[in-house]
Amino acid sequence: MHSSMVSAPAEWFSMAVSTQTESPYFRALLRALVLYLVSCCTVSADEQESAPYLMVGTFFPYILEESMDGKPQGLAIDVLHRVTELTGDQFKVLVLPWPRALRLVEVGAADGLIGPYKTRQREAILDYSATEIYHDHMIFLSRGKDFKTIRQWRGNLQGIADQRIITVRGWAYGAEFEQIKPRLQTVEANTFSHGLQLLQKGRGELLAANERNAIFEVRKEQLQPKIAYLTPPFGRMVGYFGFSKQKGDHQFQRRFNQALSEMHHNGEMLELWTKHGLKLYPETAPQSLSE
């Protein structure tokens, strides 16, 4: 990057001196003021280079969380630290509500989004990282004693058209689910926790979720005896970093993708998945929510 030199204050100084009193005191005071303005408005190349890239996201269990003192943590943070080591790029991370995070990236107020699934709508505003950072099983939850619903599920979405399915606003469930969704009876929850409440109150027979969030939330709410999960999963989704199309910083994206690719090839990504309890290949059956 090049230095941004501000010439307007200097030009103003020359005009002011020519139109104002020739008092030495006035000239010294005016010169000090102009030098202050120039120092405030001039940004060196080093300062510009060190400006962090703003990455935003929402709470994703194990992917992006906040520590007790409010610091971002999780798989994505470890990945960003390693990208910094490989590229020199610095990052600032904000954990925000999902709609706000998505909007900031859409308008170019943030450089990247942490953890989005790939959908047609999001591809209009995001350039996705060349490689993924995690995988998710998509599963259904039911009330633990709803044996009829549990027995009815055989992995075929068309076979549950008579069931009320709770979905979470803003969540992506995969192309197959979205294709058949108009023929399903759906009830929309504001959050996953809200979805669990609706499920327990009988507002729906099934709650659609990703395995990672489901396990985290059910354990947090201590609902293991009351909630059952249905196997097999109805789909699989992959999470990426999403870069702002509005900003269009392709050099940054190229550096980032090269670092991410190196982490996959040298085994570092596998080590991070293991560290955070995530699966390398999610084709196996989901963990039991009663564990």
UniProtKB/TrEMBL annotation:
The keyword Signal applies. Pfam families: SBP_bac_3. Residues 53-280 form the Solute-binding protein family 3/N-terminal domain. The keyword Membrane does not apply. InterPro entries: Solute-binding_3/MltF_N (IPR001638). Keywords: Signal. It comes from the Bacteria. Belongs to the bacterial solute-binding protein 3 family. This is Solute-binding protein family 3/N-terminal domain-containing protein. It comes from Motiliproteus coralliicola.
